[in-house]
């Protein structure tokens, strides 16, 4: 009996030593608590499983003399009860701590400011194009869009640029397979629109055009043109001048003036290049007389190379050259089955990049196609 009792005592003592590290629990984190719980489970196995010292003691109950068996049995049970109670107590504390810690970790803090998604914005070319479109739509123009790969016929022949015509070479077109080319001007849309809609018509055709230019500060092989066309009975050069002037006044202010200089284009006759009075110096060519001081400050940084009094956008001339225009050539009307003895029309076109560069004070048009967000974000 005493030998068996010693076995139970030593099992109880071994548990006490092993359990010492759990008697004063100090928890500071979820990971630590989970580690402690694993240690506790291992300890439970060591002291309560079938292979434990306590289990061995239980097996002795049957071998004890009958008069002492009850006393010994009660002793074993008391020790087992105490061990299990202590383990359960710590187990409960650990589980409570872990579930609370997990809840804290996963809690949604509605007071933390949200992360704002990055929003895009329009490209400077698009901003300008839409502004011009709005003005022309209010004057009764329809916006026309068409293909960028054209046949020789639409890109040249129908525009009064026959084979062998010098303009055909000078434009240095991108030819693809035989008979096809990337359009070198948006005038192709004039032909297609007249064929499809018939006359009278008023259209505005913005779009990409392609020429074999080496990129530099003012040239890129792809750029945007915007072309206007008006065909009706009795249309004259006066309508052209009135329309272009009205558009530029709405863009740059009532005081804006326009100037038409004789020129040559195969698809118009007569032809004229048009300029408008500088919107920075108001046509004076002098920086000193700039009414808007903000504009002056913006420009002062880049105008160091120029005499201080000379306006930079117009190079001191007071005029900004913008585009080409003229009365639609009778051959172009004929190509679209429009009778030039009954109908007449005017057309004008210009490059959007050049206008955007002036408007947003951009010194190199290549910036507009490099997709550098640091540049683009300035035009929000
Ligand atoms: Zn100027």
Brief description of this entry?
With 380 residues, this protein is an alpha+beta fold. It has helices at residues 2-23, 30-48, 53-60, 66-106, 124-138, 152-155, 166-170, 187-197, 237-252, 293-300, 330-335, 352-360, 373-376; strands at residues 142-143, 149-151, 180-182, 201-210, 222-232, 258-265, 268-277, 319-328, 344-351.
Give a verbal description of the structure.
With 380 residues, the chain is α+β, with helices and mostly antiparallel strands. It has 13 helices and 9 strands. The chain has helices at residues 2-23, 30-48, 53-60, 66-106, 124-138, 152-155, 166-170, 187-197, 237-252, 293-300, 330-335, 352-360, 373-376; strands at residues 142-143, 149-151, 180-182, 201-210, 222-232, 258-265, 268-277, 319-328, 344-351.
Any chance you could write out the topology, listing elements then pairs?
Layout: H1 2-23, H2 30-48, H3 53-60, H4 66-106, H5 124-138, E1 142-143, E2 149-151, H6 152-155, H7 166-170, E3 180-182, H8 187-197, E4 201-210, E5 222-232, H9 237-252, E6 258-265, E7 268-277, H10 293-300, E8 319-328, H11 330-335, E9 344-351, H12 352-360, H13 373-376
Parallel strand pairs: 1-4
Antiparallel strand pairs: 2-3, 4-5, 5-9, 6-7, 7-8, 8-9
Bound molecules: zinc ion.
Zinc ion binds next to loops.
């Amino acid at each position: 009996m005493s030998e068996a009792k010693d076995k139970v005592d030593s099992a109880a003592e071994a548990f006490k030593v092993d359990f010492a590290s759990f008697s004063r629990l100090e928890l500071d984190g979820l990971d630590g608590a989970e580690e402690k719980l694993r240690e506790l489970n291992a300890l439970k196995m060591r002291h309560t499983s079938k292979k434990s010292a306590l289990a061995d003691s239980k097996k002795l109950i049957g071998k004890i003399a009958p008069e002492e068996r009850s006393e010994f049995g009660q002793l074993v049970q008391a020790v087992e009860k105490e061990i299990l109670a202590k383990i359960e107590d710590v187990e409960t504390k650990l589980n409570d701590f872990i579930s609370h810690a997990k809840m804290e970790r996963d809690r949604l803090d509605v007071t933390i400011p949200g992360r704002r998604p990055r929003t895009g914005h329009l490209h400077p070319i698009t901003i300008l194009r839409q502004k011009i479109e709005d003005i022309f739509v209010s004057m009764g123009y329809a916006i026309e869009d068409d293909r960028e790969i054209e046949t020789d016929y639409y890109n040249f022949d129908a525009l009064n640029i026959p084979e062998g015509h010098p303009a055909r070479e000078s434009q240095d077109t991108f030819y693809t397979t035989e008979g096809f080319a990337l359009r070198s001007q948006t005038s192709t849309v004039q032909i297609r629109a007249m064929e499809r809609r018939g006359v009278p018509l008023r259209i505005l055709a913005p779009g990409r055009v392609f020429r074999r230019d080496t990129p530099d500060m003012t040239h890129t092989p792809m750029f945007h043109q915007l072309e206007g066309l008006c065909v009706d009975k009795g249309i004259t050069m006066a309508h052209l001048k009135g329309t272009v002037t009205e558009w530029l006044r709405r863009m740059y202010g009532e005081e804006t003036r326009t100037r038409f200089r004789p020129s040559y284009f195969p698809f118009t006759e007569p032809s004229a290049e048009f300029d408008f009075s500088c919107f920075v110096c108001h046509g004076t060519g002098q920086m000193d007389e700039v009414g808007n001081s903000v504009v002056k400050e913006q420009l002062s940084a880049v105008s160091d190379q120029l005499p201080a009094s000379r306006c930079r956008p117009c190079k001191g001339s007071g005029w900004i050259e913008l585009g080409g225009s003229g009365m639609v050539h009778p051959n172009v009307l004929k190509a679209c089955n429009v009778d030039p003895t009954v109908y007449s029309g005017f057309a004008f076109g210009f490059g959007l990049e050049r206008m955007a560069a002036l408007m947003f004070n951009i010194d190199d048009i290549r910036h507009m196609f490099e997709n550098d967000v640091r540049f683009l974000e300035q035009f929000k």
